[in-house]
Structures are given as structure tokens and as C-alpha cells.
Design a protein that fits this description.
Helix content: 40-55%
Distance between the termini: 13 Å
Number of strands: 8
Shape: globular
Order of helices and strands: EHEEHEHEHEHEHEHH
CATH superfamily: Metal-dependent hydrolases
Oligomer: single chain
CATH architecture: Alpha-Beta Barrel
Largest sheet: 8 strands, parallel
Low-confidence stretches: none
Structural class: alpha/beta
Number of domains: 1
Length: 211
């Protein structure tokens, strides 16, 4: 199991990066990205620290760690600028916090994000077919979420993926220790979205391409 969307104490997560990664390794994960919430106020603080700890942990643990960021609740006109700054700071994985049904995300966030150099559009809610086609064309992964609330549109996202060829990834959006899941739990969530275990394996290959 690879999880490309997790949070530490550098935003609103409960764990320091070392404990987050160790707990993930303990339940059998082979790869993880630390992607704390960021905007123009804090990404210059978060990203260098995640890079430092990821480099150190990769020397001693069996799990592979990638440094990233989740650009969160940034007004759509500022998303491109924020993504570019995150890349300059060295973020390997750049996620944008999509138009989830669980939060008041600004309308137009999905489209603005898909026009930039991101890797994953997280919990994109009721994204449109046009948006899914852009994701497919640009090889941007759409997220199937294990997180309460964000998971409400999983079936819609899965259906659009099948219709457009957009690639998917399954992530936890972990904030607390209990949010981490193993491969068996992930397979159940994927099946709950109307997909198959084969689709789960494809999602894992999509995630593995970043390591």
C-alpha cells in the first residue's frame, strides 16, 4: 500500500513526521508522501523541513518517503502562483485540495488546479467530465479518498475516471494515527466506490511511478 496524502504537525496532523512514517511502515505501507496543508503564508516553512526529514528517514526505514504539500483553500487565481513556488521549494508531490462536498472550497478550484503543474487533485467532489478529461490528458491523478466526508463523491469520481480515462489513486488524507489503513482496508474502499481489486492494483502502480 502506498499513501500519497498525509498530514503531520506541520499543519493539522497529530503526529510528527517520524512517528507518522513509522506507524505507516508498521502496518505494511511501502511508500508515503507527507503533504501538509499549505498556502503562500507557510509553504516556505513546511516544504524544506519535510524534505530534510524525508531524506533522513529514507536512510534508515524500509518505507519510502516523499516530501510534498497540499495547497489548501487557496483562491483559484492564486493556485498557479502557489504551485510554482512549491515546485521551486522542492516539493516532489504537489496536491491541490479539491472541491470536496465536505468543505466550502471555492468554486473553480478544480479547474484552476488542473491547469497547473500538480500531481494529484484531492477529493475533487462533483468534478465535471471536462475536468476529468483535462486530468486524463495531463496525467494528473484523481483521488479516491478514505477520509470521512471527502469520500462522499468517490463513486462519482470513479465513474468519471472510467468514462474519460483519468487515472486514480487511493489515499487516506491521514490526520490522526487511526486514519492510516492497510491494503485490505484500501481494497474495500475501492470496491465501495464501484471499482474492483484490479482497479486498486492499477492505482498502486500509479502511485508507485513517483518513487
Amino acid at each position: 500500500m502506498i499513501d500519497m496524502h498525509t498530514h503531520s504537525i506541520f499543519s493539522d496532523g497529530a503526529l510528527i513526521p517520524s512517528e507518522l512514517v513509522k506507524r505507516a511502515e508498521h502496518i505494511g505501507l511501502t511508500g508515503i508522501a507527507i503533504t501538509d496543508h499549505g498556502d503562500l503564508s507557510n509553504i516556505d516553512f513546511i516544504i524544506p523541513r519535510i524534505i530534510t526529514v524525508a531524506n533522513e528517514l529514507n536512510r534508515y526505514l524500509s518505507i519510502n518517503v516523499l516530501p510534498g504539500i497540499e495547497i489548501t483553500h487557496v483562491p483559484p487565481p492564486l493556485i498557479e502562483k502557489t504551485v510554482k513556488k512549491a515546485r521551486l521549494l522542492g516539493a516532489v508531490i504537489v496536491i491541490v485540495h479539491g472541491e470536496t462536498l465536505a468543505e466550502p472550497v471555492a468554486k473553480g478550484t478544480n479547474m484552476a488546479a488542473l491547469k497547473t503543474d500538480i500531481n494529484i487533485l484531492a477529493h475533487p467532489g462533483l468534478l465535471t467530465e471536462e475536468e476529468a478529461l483535462i486530468a486524463a490528458k495531463k496525467n494528473i491523478l484523481l483521488e479516491i479518498s478514505a477520509r470521512k466526508g471527502h469520500c462522499l463523491a468517490n463513486g462519482h469520481v470513479a465513474k468519471l475516471s472510467k468514462n474519460t480515462g483519468a487515472k486514480l489513486v487511493i489515499n487516506t488524507d491521514t490526520h490522526e494515527p487511526g486514519d492510516l489503513i492497510n491494503s485490505n482496508q484500501a481494497k474495500c474502499i475501492v470496491r465501495g466506490a464501484g471499482l474492483s481489486e484490479k482497479d486498486y492494483e492499477i492505482m498502486q502502480k500509479n502511485a508507485l511511478s513517483f518513487f
